Amino acid sequence: MVYVITAACLDVTDRSCVDECPVDCVYEGRRKLYIHPEECIDCGACARVCPVDAIVWERDLDGDGHAHLGDAHAFFYRPLSGRPKPIGAPGGAGMLGPVGVDTDLVTAARPAVGDPATNRSTDPAAPAPEAQAQAVPPLA
Ligand code: SF4
Ligand code: SF4
């Protein structure tokens, strides 16, 4: 079981979770952060400080959250755009620094407009974050 950063983090990225993590396993993309599924020790400290409740324990994930669990694996174990190889398991986000790139799922997500706490757009044509997340292909 691991903790997962879900869609509510999109475009918030205040890094409160980074400061709280005792094993430095929260990595920074461009519009969202990602918890390393193998480096996380399941302490829950990050979830308690997230201002938008974006961090969810794996067992409590809903459908959108499960998509972000798969997306976390994609962030670390598939080559990101412009990168020749996956990030893998660097053993600490501080050593790697901000990655500056997101997964395809997060890159394609519409900017939050209206309610930053839920990332739900006020644009009636905008798909809900759940609908965007469902576009994530299954893990190989
Ligand atoms: S504390 Fe929450 S909103 Fe802030 S960067 Fe971490 S997951 Fe994102
Ligand atoms: S649950 Fe603990 S170890 Fe895992 S990302 Fe959060 S603070 Fe770090």
Automatic annotation (TrEMBL):
The protein's required cofactors: [4Fe-4S] cluster; [3Fe-4S] cluster
Query: Which is one GO molecular function term here?
Result: metal ion binding
Name all 4Fe-4S ferredoxin-type domain ranges.
31-60
Extract the ranges annotated as region (Disordered): 107-140
Question: Which UniProt keyword terms apply here?
Answer: 3Fe-4S, 4Fe-4S, Electron transport, Iron, Iron-sulfur, Metal-binding, Repeat, Transport
- Cleaved signal peptide residues: none
Transmembrane ranges, per UniProt, are none
UniProt xrefs under Gene3D superfamilies: 3.30.70.20
Give the cofactor note text.
Answer: Binds 1 [3Fe-4S] cluster.
Low complexity composition bias: which ranges? 124-140
- UniProt-listed InterPro entries: 4Fe4S_Fe-S-bd, 4Fe4S_Fe_S_CS, 7Fe_ferredoxin, FdxA_Actino, RnfB_subfamily
Q: What does this protein do?
A: Ferredoxins are iron-sulfur proteins that transfer electrons in a wide variety of metabolic reactions.
NCBIfam families with a match to the protein in the record: FdxA_Actino
* Name of the protein: Ferredoxin
The record lists the organism as: Frankia alni (strain DSM 45986 / CECT 9034 / ACN14a)
Top-level taxonomy: Bacteria, Bacillati, Actinomycetota, Actinomycetes, Frankiales
